[in-house]
Design goal:
two-stranded antiparallel sheet, 4 helices, about 65% helix
Length: about 170
Amino acid sequence: MRTIRPAWLAAVGVVLAAVGWVATLLTSRASLALPVLPLSSLITMALIAVVCLVLGLRVRRWRDGNRDKAFDPLLAARTVVLAQACAYAGAVLFGWHAGILINQIPTVSMRSDLSIFWVMVAHMAGGLVMVTIGVIVERFCKVPPEDNDPGTSSSRPKRDGHGEEEFA
């Protein structure tokens, strides 16, 4: 399993910003409402982020603490997958709402009610929180390389020239 690459997260955000911008153009031409998620979706985003963080803290506590108790490796693998999904979902939500916001900035002076702008900003902030938590929890799940005796070599070769860490 590969670690999250910040460039991919940025690329997802930029692509979804373009898609959100185009979707806003199409919906405004058809006299439809803006394709913005309702504020209640922030509760779901927060719940996903909190679950991801709690599971990540459990893995980190095992990684940094006493390893006397057995730890389910499947839980650690699922936590890494959840962290990566959380980060990518946050990038999608941030990009989508950023594209809509960019499209709607010229209409600020014509609107009497600016609450939709605050909804978009709230979703963008929620997306950033999800990306941040996803990246941090993924780091929690990394196990540092084991110390080998000076005369022995590691049983696994390094991949692609990246570090020797692996996931818990």
